[in-house]
Design a protein that fits this description.
Blueprint: H1 9-16, H2 20-28, H3 52-62, H4 68-78, H5 87-101, E1 118-125, E2 132-133, E3 136-137, E4 141-147, E5 153-158, H6 164-178, E6 184-187, H7 199-215, E7 219-222, H8 232-252, E8 256-257, H9 260-277, H10 279-286, E9 301-306, E10 312-315, E11 318-321, E12 330-335, E13 339-344, E14 347-353, E15 364-366, H11 373-378
């Protein structure tokens, strides 16, 4: 067209390297090719013309959350002659209708996590993994801690419930492994920190949790009750961590561990691998963390007990034996998640493995035969009826019904037979 201002059609076409016919076509119609396109019309009849406005739209208005596949199945039930190939057409039509007339949807506001501001804690069940320790299934949980900004993680195996002792031990282990403390600690409505059955216990637990946070200069917060998605920075990683543990167990080839310490080392190795992938971000956030206090605070519960004439005491529905010389004394028990320490006054006496009551509510037993053997030898007929004898466990933790003595005494033994357990 520039050449056409001074040249003829043939000359301008030659200079533009097009044919003369194309030059005359452009001369007669100067619209761009995109302006000449005609809107594409339907090539076949609309298969949903008679049913969409009359039947589909009322269903969408009555049940806004209904799935498109459910609407299609209902239409096929009402109209058996409707072709199966129109499913995608119906799904696109419903999606377009919802974009124009559908209900308002939830809006997600992206958060920018400040370094050193928030750490999150929660417990997750691990019983479905089928882990066994010393040949017995391990019913346990994981305490899981995570920094929202850098993704630092720490996991601790918990044998009991979501108690304050488990929370305090796991949180302090995480902070000391991290080397600093965030400004805020977020959790859900943990009974160990915020509530309990009785009013007095609720106040006591809350005070202990607040004292724990004050020791490290952390502000305790929690999400709204029933709104787990508000703790998405810890709820989502729960699944990722459990999947990583499940994969590692498959690669390991067995789910059996000789000791609890071996299983805990296995968990620590998996978590350390995850932290290694975020090493640069974790190191950058460490500079924004609060300094740790000189020492840890208590991560146990002090409970007074009385040693009865049976040679032991009952604590949390579990009977423990102690040396008979302690009968009649009042002891102070430092109750941890796994072991418990016995003190008389300020003197440490011994450490016992913590027992657990049976799932059916029956009492458990932690019995060391060395504490009672001298009395049973003096009263051999007691072997037939002694519940203590039937729970001998070489000082190991056992359940309400289980026994792990290699030569458990049974009724019918000779009265004078020596006990070689």
């Amino acid at each position: 067209m520039k050449h056409r201002l001074t040249e003829s059609v043939a000359v301008a076409a030659a200079k533009a390297a097009i044919s003369v016919a194309s030059a005359y076509r452009v001369e007669n119609d100067r619209r761009l090719p995109s302006q000449k396109q005609v809107p594409r019309g339907r090539r076949r009849p609309d298969p949903l013309a008679e049913v969409f406005d009359a039947e589909v739209v009322p269903m969408l208005q009555a049940a806004p959350q209904i799935r498109a596949v459910a609407v299609f199945e209902e239409l096929r039930r009402r109209h058996p002659d409707l072709a199966y190939g129109v499913r995608r057409t119906l799904e696109r039509r419903i999606r377009a209708w919802r974009a124009q007339h559908g209900p308002q949807r939830e809006v997600i506001f992206r958060q920018v996590h400040e370094p050193g501001r928030m750490g999150l804690s929660d417990f997750t069940e691990m019983g479905d993994l089928g882990v066994e320790v010393a040949g017995s299934p391990l019913d346990h949980r994981l305490y899981h801690f995570r920094l929202a900004c850098s993704g630092f993680e720490h996991a601790h195996v918990i044998l009991g419930g979501e108690s304050y002792v488990a929370l305090a031990e796991g949180l302090q282990n995480a902070l000391w492994a991290l080397g600093g403390a965030p400004r805020e600690h977020r959790s859900d409505s943990l009974s160990a920190a915020f509530r309990n059955l009785s009013r007095d216990a609720r106040i006591d637990l809350t005070a202990r949790y607040e004292a724990l946070c004050a020791h490290y200069g952390i502000e305790p917060t929690r999400n709204n009750r029933g709104k787990a998605h508000e703790n998405g920075a810890i709820e989502g990683p729960h699944g990722h961590l459990k999947n990583a543990i499940a994969d590692a167990l498959l690669l390991r080839g067995t789910r059996q561990f000789e000791t609890l310490e071996a299983y805990r080392g296995f968990i620590d190795e998996i978590v350390s691998r995850k932290n290694a992938r975020n090493a640069k971000r974790i190191e950058a956030e460490r500079a924004h963390l609060r300094a740790l206090p000189p020492t840890r605070t208590s991560d146990y519960e002090d409970v007074p007990v009385y040693v009865t004439s049976s040679g032991g005491f009952t604590l949390r529905r579990v009977f423990y034996t102690v040396p008979s010389r302690l009968i009649g004394h009042r002891l102070r028990v430092r109750l941890y998640d796994d072991p418990l320490d016995l003190l008389i006054g300020g003197t440490h006496l011994m450490r016992l493995q913590r027992g657990r009551a049976g799932p059916d509510g029956k009492h458990g037993h932690v019995v060391d035969y060395r504490h009672v053997i001298h009395a049973l030898r003096k009263k051999p007929m007691r072997w037939r009826t002694s519940s203590t004898a039937n729970s001998c466990s070489r000082g190991k933790r056992i359940g309400a019904r289980s026994t792990s003595c290699s030569s458990t005494m049974a009724s019918g033994w000779p009265a004078r037979r020596p006990w070689s357990c």
